[in-house]
Amino acid sequence: MKEQTSRLAIVKPLLRFFKPYRAQLIAALVLAVINVAATLYAPILTGDAVDLIISKGKVDFEGLKPILMTFAVTIAIVALSQYVMNLCLNKAAYSALRDLRNKAFDNYSRLPLSYIDSHPKGDIISRLIADIEQISDGLIMGFAQLFTGVVTIIGTLIFMLTINVKIALIVVLLTPLSLFAARFIARHTFEYFGEQTSTRGDLTAFVQEMTGNQKILKAFAHEREAEQQFEGLNRKLQVVSVRAIFFSSLVNPSTRFVNGLVYAAVGIFGAVTVLGGGFTVGQLSCFLTYANQYTKPFNEISGVVTELQGALACARRVLELIDETPEPDDSACRVLETVDGRMTAENVSFSYQPDRPLVEDFNIDVKPGQRIAIVGPTGCGKTTFINLLMRFYEVDGGRITVSGVNAAGCTRDSLRGAFGMVLQDTWLRHGTIRDNIAYGRPDATFAEVEAAAKAAHCDRFIRKLEHGYDEVISDEGMLSAGQKQLLCIARVMLALPPMLILDEATSSIDTRTELLIQQTFDEMMQGRTSFIIAHRLSTIRHADCILVMNAGHIAEQGTHEELLRKGGAYAELYNSQFEC
Q1: Which residue pairs from 477-480 have beta carbons closer than 8 angstroms and sit at least 24 positions apart in sequence?
Q2: What is the DSSP string of 131-187?
Q3: Residue 533 has pLDDT above 60, yes or no
Q4: 8-18+97-323: which CATH number, 1.10.3720.10, 1.20.1560.10, 3.55.30.10, 3.40.50.1110?
Q5: What residues contact residue 64 under an 8 Å CB cut-off, 6+ apart?
Q6: pTM, to two decimals
Q7: Does domain 343-576 have CATH number 3.40.50.300?
Q8: How many angstroms separate the CA atoms of 373 and 389, rounded?
Q9: Which residue of 40, 173, 196, 528 shows the fewest CB atoms closer than 10 Å?
Q10: How far is CA 117 from each of CA 122, 316, 355, rounded to the nearest angstrom?
């Protein structure tokens, strides 16, 4: 009962995506009725034709002609209705699944960063692509069998009852045995298919992780270990897949065995009836065909149980992604329009895990145009502060204000639009270099893009490429890490937002280019509030204020000279750079 409820909980929300395409589904149902009616009419014509073949050399050819003509028209109707019905079903199914994929991706794009950080990217990719593809295969096959199967069962039952009630009752009483067999086996295969899809997601996540980090893999000679891990996951997928397919494959032979008994019973009782004079040979032939057609939908439906169970298991994973709680809607919040660069943090506290506090009682008052450098040991909360400032994560306590406005009361788009970020981890989309630089300002002219590239000192290497600014690149393309970082810097220089965040923005750039970039940054930061995270302390000597963080707290703050005179944590960090 619990498993039935579980599957019903999957089917109900899934059917919502088919509501806009009811017209195609209704058309498919009407065509299914026409198709089945024509299909069921054919055995009657066959029976009539058999009765006109009296004996050897005694055939009523004149009577056969109209029957054969009608038979040809019937076959044409069956073929045409089947073709159009499949078109309608495919149109409805693929349209609904397109909406499902859009809904899943739309919800994924609005999920908080905490969800994305805590779930393997490969598993999410598997849900959006492989799982929905599995739903597509299962539902299209399932709908086709459902539409024609139900109508065929009802239609053949009516035709059989009009021919001989007793033999029809034999068929009706024996056939449900195949349904009980199919239901019993299918009930036990659902959990196996759930395990199969989950394992496939793990395997996709592992492959995505390994293919994206081949250089590290080879540098540490980790190929053999990776192969062993892959073999382990692959073996597990093989085991759960074989188990799921094995049990689901029992359905078809079980139902066919029952249906064979039904066919044999009809043949025996029908033959006895013919010998008794209550049946013609043609009618027996017609009835045997109906008995076969009556049981055929059960066989076909049982044959797609594997697909349907797999589709439901995949649908559960996709619906879980859709049902994940997105970031709260902030359309009614205030749009941050005028940004003067002032930022304050008042008694801010935050932790990624409730039992492990990270940021506690964090306070800072940044004036417009100030350059704030943030330093400290790894894990002290530098990047966490940036995540809170950009509202990638929400503060647990206290508040952060930008230009006097509580950040929690602003729309995320307007808040994030006030900042320009250059991170240590670069990201470039698949597209031209010009598109990548203009990512934050798609309406920028080529002259503006070129000026930003020159300011970021990447114009020279861009022009050396075969297609220059029209060269198509990607995040995994031919550019070096330093070149990618220069393009990311050019992207921010083109947008020129009122506030800047530079998180190890020159970590992959050579020293000579870094000096040139620093000069450009100095110009760009004039009049703009800037937050600079750096490990190379020589790059932040001219900051207006340096925050030395430790375990989520501000241990020290002041200018470079002030902190050196204190001889505290900053002085220790700074002097450690020159120790042999």
Answers
A1: 477/428, 479/428, 480/508
A2: IHHHHHHHHHHHHHHHHHHHHHHHHHHHHHHHH-HHHHHHHHHHTHHHHHHHHHHHH
A3: yes
A4: 1.20.1560.10
A5: 49, 52
A6: 0.67
A7: yes
A8: 14
A9: 173
A10: 12, 21, 18
